[in-house]
Amino acid sequence: MTEKEETRILAIESSCDETAAAVVVNGRDVRSNVISSQIDIHTLYGGVVPEIASRKHIERINQVVQQALDDAGMTLDEIDAVAVTYGPGLVGALLVGVAHAKAIAWAKNLPLIGVHHIEGHISANYISSGISSVEDGVRKPDLEPPFGCLVVSGGHTHLVRVKDYGEYEILGKTADDAAGEAFDKVARAIGLGYPGGPKIDKAAREGDARAIEFPRGKVRGSVYDFSFSGLKSAVLNYLNEKKMKGEEICVGNVAASFQKAVVDVLVEHSEHAIREFGFDRFAIAGGVASNSALREAMEEACRRHGVLFYRPSPVLCTDNAAMIGAAAYYEYRRGVRSDWSLNAVPNLKLGER
Ligand code: KG4
Ligand code: ZN
Description:
- The protein has 11 helices and 12 strands.
- The chain is α/β, with parallel strands linked by helices.
- β11 (281-285), α9 (292-305) and β12 (308-310) form a beta-alpha-beta unit.
- The radius of gyration is 20 Å and the shape is globular.
- 49% of the residues are buried.
């Protein structure tokens, strides 16, 4: 491949309930980042309804892609490759993005790059590391592998060793609920509604994290795997007990104590990985990485270990297409190309193609 000065990638993401498109240059320079959220519609049902998600993606994708090009001040003739999330996620939702990306790539004779959604989340750290990393007046170097990464989203909780661009070793994952799923379920139980993560984050600021002693989930025989279903049950039991006794619950205290139980476990496992693998850089990614308590606790833990800490800006933690454009650039440089048989793979594993 002859190396051009600029590789301009048009990226599309539609794996869940955001229709998103972005233009990213050389993996780190975001020229546009358009996100059309469907949250208002799914809120009515207390969670994402897959059928509705697919239909909304179809309605919106044309406009979102056009907006991404317009915001970047480019036409399709100036784009070098088209990238799209092809898994994991909701099959019908993924298909909309995959079909759209294929159509553009075919019509414009451009290379097509299928991207793993979690690889996208991890790669969000390549984008913002240069922007948000001035500490004590010293600019941190841009993030490059190898590093450790905690990926915490609505569907996944992975502790990952990023050995190189596109090379991942999963050290641990959840045995049951994902961290974001636990946030969403507990939020619903305490009447905060959907999506629960940001609402618990906010309610927790008014509460005392030491008020209620919730369990820190462990998985027998593994220091890296996670389990959140026991914690979720403990919160539900606590709420039931209070209700039976006719006692009021303090939403802030439940939110803060639950959040602390999740954050403690996430940080403890990450610290274990930092010690064992001697990472000198550690990153967090995924929707839950926008949680203020987690960001603070991980930053503090990394400082204690003398490790550089990276986290995307909150808008790049939750689903977006800029992160897909960042991941796609490094896949593109490695020579990865998808063909016209590219399909949605709802349970795609990290590191598989
Ligand atoms: O990465 P993401 O946008 O979608 C998936 O790939 O799953 O993550 C969405 C998840 C939801 O469960 C949401 O409740 C959670 O991230 N989340 C948060 C916060 N913001 C979003 N969880 C805790 N605190 C937050 N501030
Ligand atoms: Zn996601």
